[in-house]
Amino acid sequence: MSNVKFFAIIELQSIQILQMGEIQIMEQQYKIVYSRRITKELMKRGFFPVKKGINPDFEQYDCWLFEDTIDFHKAFEELTVKKDR
Length: 85
Known about the structure:
Elements: E1 8-12, E2 15-19, E3 22-25, E4 28-33, H1 36-44, E5 51-54, E6 62-67, H2 70-80
Antiparallel strand pairs: 1-2, 3-4, 4-6, 5-6
């Protein structure tokens, strides 16, 4: 059996997008965040999700779709990159 990747289908304003992690719609970049903790921290920093969905791998959990701007990317990296101690 071959190793097959499964993709998440996210519906945004009646457009279906087939992709993993990052998606692009009409030249706009989006990032899917699977962590509630990261989402809350991003919201404290002024970044709000465009859409909330169901995690395709674990249906009991949610995921959030954010616009992936330069400022968002910096904030996301600050929250997710491990720092040397």
